[in-house]
Queue: 3 jobs
Job 1
Amino acid sequence: MHPQFVHARVESPPRGVQDLTVDDAADRDSLVAAGQALTWRARFTAGSRTAIPLSETCAVVVESEEPAPEGWNDRFVRGLAHRLAGELTIATFGAGERPAPVSREDADCVELLGSAIDGLGRLLADLEDAQTPEETAERMVADTAGTHLALLGVVADQRVAVRQEAGFTVHSVRSVAAGATRADLERARSRVGLPWPSQAGTSVGEELGLARWCTAMQVRGHQMWSSLQDDDALVTDLWLRDP
C-alpha cells in the first residue's frame, strides 16, 4: 500500500468517515484511522493502517506490520511517570523559553505543571485497576461528560444516550451550552480529544479528560467522533466495540 493522504472535507476534527476524502480509493480502516488521528491530533492505528496527522485537516495513512513511532498517549500508558514529568518540565521551562519562576505568570505555570503531574499519577493508578468492559465504558462516559463541562464552562443540560450499531455500543454524550456562540462550540469540539481541556484555552487543567483513553481506544478498536447539534449542543459519540 502506498501512503495515502486523507483530508477532512468540511471540518476538522471530522464528524465521521463521511467527512473524509482521499485521492485514491480507500478502505474503511484507512478512513477510520485518518479520522481518529485528526480527532485526537495524534497517531492512530486501526487494523493494519496507521494514520499520522500532518495538519488539522490532513493525515497520511500507511500500512505496516512494524510498530509505528510512539506518541504522547503511548508514554502515558507505559507508566514512566518520571520521564513524563521530566518532559513536561522541559517543555515548560526548557530551551530558554521561560525563566526561573519569579513573576505571577511563571508561578501560575508552575502550578499548572504540578496539576499536570498530579493528573499523570492518577492516570497511572487508574490504569492499574482491572476493569470490566461495562466499568470501562462508564468511566469513559464520565470523562467525556467532564471534558464537555471543562471546555464549555457551563452547561444548561447534559444527557447520555446508548444505542447499538453493527458490532458497536454507541454512547452519546450531549451537552447543551449556556450562552455559548457557534464559534465557542466549534472550538470546544476541536479540543475534545486533546489532553487537559480547560475553558481558559491554553492552560493545563487538573484532569486529562477523555484524552486519557486515546491509546486504549486504539487497542480495543473503539472510535470517538464529535459534532454539533441544534446550534447549542456539543455531542460526542463513543463507538465502543462489543466484546
Job 2
Amino acid sequence: MTWLPFAIRCVTSLTVEGLRVRERRRPTELVTVRKAAVFLGSLSLLLALPGCAESGPAEGDDDVAACKQLLGAAGVDWVKRNSESETGVMPGFEDLNSAKDLFEKQATSWDSRSADIPSYVGSELCRIVERAGTADRSLTIRYGASILPFGHTFGDDWVVKGLNADVKLVYGKEAAGRTRYTVRIRCQVKGSAAGQKDEVPLEGVMVDTLTNADSIDEHSMYLLHSARTVLKTFECLNDPQVPAGLADGTGGEKRTSR
C-alpha cells in the first residue's frame, strides 16, 4: 500500500491576533468548571464550512515528513497496514516551530490573578486521510496549550494513567463515538508565571477514524513517540521525560472506562 500525497481542504481557518487557527473539538465530558465559558468562546471563533472534496495539487515533502517524524517509521507502517485504501497527507498545517511559538505565547499570557477563562487553540501537525475518501476519515495529531489544569479530574468514561510526575495519558470515547488519546505534559515555559506548567500544561491529541486498529497500547505508543519528538523542539524548563509506552511509566492515577 502506498502512502500518497494529495490535497484536501475542509478545515476551518481563522485569524486571531495574527495567528492562523483551525477548528478543534473537545469532548464535553472533559470540560467541567470551564465548560460554559469555553463553549461560548468557541461559538465566537468557529465557522461552519460546506463539504469538501479532493483537489489536485499535491502538498510538499515537508508535510509528509512531519507526519513521518511524529509517528516514526514504525508508526507510518502501522497506519499503512491498518488502512483499507491508499492514504495521503493533507498539506498546509503548522510545523513544530510555529506550534512551539503559539504554545509559548499562550503559556506566557496566563496570569494566576486573572479570572478569565482561557480558550486556547492547538496546532494540527499531521493529518492522514483516505486518498479516495473525505477528511471525515482521518488520523490527526495536534499539540497546544490545554484549557484544563494538569490535575483536572476526568469523568468516569475516561481512563487516566499517570506515567510519571510530569506526564499523563487520557483516553476515552468522544460524543461522536471516536476514541480520543491525549498526552498531558507539565511543561514550564521560559518567561511564564510560576505554576504555569500545572495550570496550562502542554497537550497532545491523537484522534483516529482512519485505521481499523483498536489497540490502546499501539495508539498510545505512537502518540508518546510524537510527544518525545515535540519536546525536542519545545524548550520545557523542567525537562519532562516521556516514556516509550504505558508499560514504561512509573504508574499513578488510573481509572477504568465503563
Job 3
Amino acid sequence: MSYLSLLDINIFAILVCFVLASLIVIGHRLIMQYKAKKALESEIAKRDNFAFGINYACQIGIIAITGAYIFPDVYEHLIAGHFTLAILTVVISFSFILLGQYIHRKWILNRFNEEKAIMKQNICAALVDSGMLLGNTILVLGIFHWLHPQGVSDLLVATMSFIVLQIVFAIDSKLREMRFAKANQGASLQQNFNLANTSIGIRYAGKTIGLSLALFAGLQSAPYHGATIVENINSVLLHCGIMWVLLYSMSFSLIHFALPKVNVGLEVDHQDNIGVACIEFAVFTAMGYLLINLFSV
C-alpha cells in the first residue's frame, strides 16, 4: 500500500491555486454585492432570499469545481516554470464560463431577466440560471479536457467549438420552448419563468445539465485533429449531435417506463408538481452521466 506524502506535492503550487481561487471568490463576492446594491448579507440572511442564495451557492460551487478540475494542468505548468501559462489556464477557463452565462442570459433567454427575477426571490429563475451556469461549466471543462490548449491554435479551436456548442444549447432551448407552447396553447416558457413555477425551473435545469453531460461525452469520444478547425468542428458536431439524440431518446423512454400513466407535462406545467420535475431532473442527469461512462475515451 502506498501513501501520499507531503514531499510528493508541490506546496507552492497548491498555495498559488488556493490564492487564485480565493481572489476569484472575493472578486465574485464584491460583484454580487454590487449587483445586490451592496446588501449581499441582507439578501441571504435578513430577507431570506432563497433564490439569491441558491444562485450564489451555485456560483461558488462552480469556482471550486473548475479550480479542482484544472488543478493538474496548472500544477504541471507551475512545476515547469510556465507561470504565465498557468495563469492563462485559469483566466481562460473562467472567462469561457462567464461568456457562456452571458450568452444564456442575453441571447438564449433574451425575453427573461433572470437577475431581476432572482432579486425578487423567484426560485424558478435561480434554478434556470444555476442550471445553465453549471451546464456551461461542464461544457467548458469538457472542451478543456478534450484538447488541453497549449497555444493560440488550440485556443482558436476551443473558441470555435465553444461557440458551436452554444448554438446547440440555443437550439435545444428553443425546441423546448416550442414544445411548451404547443402543449400550453401558445404560452411562452420564458414568461412562465416569471410565475415562479419551481417545477418548471427544476425540469429546465435538469435538461440543461443533462445536455451538457451528453456534450461532454461527445467531446471525449471525438478525435482531436490538431489545429485544423474545420475537421474538429465537424467531429464535434457529429459526436455531440449523436449524444444529443441519445440523451433525449433514452431519457424520454426511461421517464415513460417510470411514469407510464402520468401526464408529465400537465403535472409540471400546471400542477407545479415538484416530485415529477425531480424525476425528470434525475433521469436527464443520469442519462447524461451514463453517456460519459459509455463513450468517453
